[in-house]
Amino acid sequence: MKTDIQIAQEAVLEPISDVAASLGLDGESLIPYGKYKAKVDHRLVKKLAEKKDAKVILVTAISPTPAGEGKTTTSVGLADALHMELGLAMSLGMLLGAALGQLAPKGGKESSKEDDHETH
């Protein structure tokens, strides 16, 4: 079985502008951080409020289960279910913490022990 790092290293990254376009987002809604990542401008929420089929779901606080399932597991499971079961177009981002102030994968080198509590 391949390790997580092997899978990640074999992944073909798509430019974030292409990912945004596939979701119907214009370039003005993105704050780019290089070619492969970006923040979404917070004003997009108000802009999309006019569309009756657009939704934003925020998972902001949850007490982890004894197995360690918390915000990350809940968010990924919710996104997977909405896409796989309902066929909805999904985009998922996670904020690692106020100190970091950026979107990044959980458990990455930018992650702190405090941010990793859900994976233990």
Element string (H = helix, E = strand): HHEEHH
- What does the radius of gyration come to? 16 Å
Shape descriptor reads globular
How many angstroms does the end-to-end distance come to?
A: 21 Å
Q: Estimate the mean pLDDT confidence.
A: 74
Helical region count? 4
Structural class: mainly alpha
Oligomer: single chain
Helix content: 25-40%
Report on the structure:
The protein has about 120 residues and is mainly α. Helices cover about 30% and strands about 5% of the residues. The chain is built from 4 helices and 2 strands, in the order ααββαα. Strands 1-2 form a two-stranded antiparallel ribbon. β1 and β2 form a beta hairpin. The protein starts with a helix and ends in a 36-residue tail after the last helix. Mean pLDDT is about 75; it is low at about 100-105 and about 110-120.
Detail the topology: elements first, then pairings.
Elements: H1 4-10, H2 16-22, E1 30-32, E2 38-40, H3 43-48, H4 71-84
Antiparallel strand pairs: 1-2
Provide a short characterization of the protein structure.
This protein has 120 residues and is mainly alpha-helical. It is built from four helices and two strands, in the order H-H-E-E-H-H.
Which features would summarize this protein structure in a list?
5% strand, disordered C terminus, mainly alpha, 4 helices
